[in-house]
Amino acid sequence: MAGKPLPDRQEDAEKALQTTADAAKSNLDAQVAQANNDINNNNYLTDAQKAAQKQAQNDAVDVALKQAVIDVDNGQDVPTVNGIPDGSTAVKEINQGHVTATKTPTQQEEDLNAQIDDQASKVKADVDADVTLKAAEKAAQKHTIDSFVAETKAKIAGLTKYQDRLDVVNQALDAPKNLHQQGKPLAEHKSDAIAAIDQKAAQIRTQIANDSRLTQAQKEVDYQLVADAVAKAKAQVNAALNADEIAAGLDYGTVQLEAAYQQKVQEQYAEKQPTTPETVVPTVKTAPVLPQTGETEKNHEGALVAEALVASVAGFFLSKVNKRRQDEK
């Protein structure tokens, strides 16, 4: 039986070769799909890394197909084309395109935590260098930053996908900057402190003026105490280079001034006050009224008896005189 004519055989060969090429492409596409799936399920790659790897694999497929066409055009036979999906350089590139992370999940977490710590350290350094903040305010802001860092690290530890962890870090890196809140400008700080010192001084001067327990000399001493403290406090405030130094001057001109004044005025109250000589009022001496003792009562009774006796004798003689006058008549 005669074979097919040559033209027919050539057509069949071309069809077979085309079929083989199509199958090779489908095989390559399947391998790319599997590789892409592996990439997508790799929790330790970022989205950007996944996209780059998948693009590299797609490029490898295109290269492989183009090379297959070239091989066919150059007279390569069906077995050669059919072997492309299994062992060609292009397929190796596809399989090599999926490169897992070079670091373990623990190492990745440590790297992300280090980024957060580094950013937090920079912000806390800015807080420490901020002359508009007092020591207590700096401590409070740095504590807030530390708390934020701890919360962010806890979020990272609770995630499994590297991209999710990376998203948390990227959002967190700018947040510490917002936790640094500058205070008032130094000029405004100083103005407020001077006003508070003047207010306290005026209050104490009013107390001194209205204190009736103090002599004028003592009041003058107290006025001078206030003036000296105010001058020293204002000088300290005006020379201050940061909020803490301003606060120290303010404390001296208010809290310490009040304490010094209270101590001084209590000492003055305890001092012996000078007194004017007392006016001696002359007294009229009167006979003392003796108490009614038993002896005086006895003397009083004797006097009464004597009076009665005198009266009795006088009556006797008077009666004799009257009788004699009657006899003479």
Q: Tell me the domain tally.
A: 3
Give the ordered list of helices and strands.
HHHHHHHHHHHHH
Distance from first to last alpha carbon = 235 Å
Largest β sheet strand count, sense and barrel closure: none
Could you explain how this protein is built, in words?
It is a single chain. With 329 residues, the protein is mainly α. The protein has three domains: 6-97, no CATH class; 105-179; 186-269. It contains 13 helices and no strands. The chain has helices at 6-40, 47-73, 78-82, 84-87, 89-97, 105-128, 135-157, 162-172, 175-179, 186-209, 216-238, 243-270, 294-328. Helix 1 (6-40) packs parallel to helix 5 (89-97) and helix 10 (186-209) runs antiparallel to helix 11. The longest helix is centred in the N-terminal third of the chain and has 35 residues, at 6-40. The radius of gyration is 60 Å and the shape is rod-shaped. Residues 1-15 have a biased composition (Basic and acidic residues). Residues 1-22 are annotated as: Disordered. Residues 190-254 form the DUF1542 domain.
Please outline the helices and strands.
Blueprint: H1 6-40, H2 47-73, H3 78-82, H4 84-87, H5 89-97, H6 105-128, H7 135-157, H8 162-172, H9 175-179, H10 186-209, H11 216-238, H12 243-270, H13 294-328
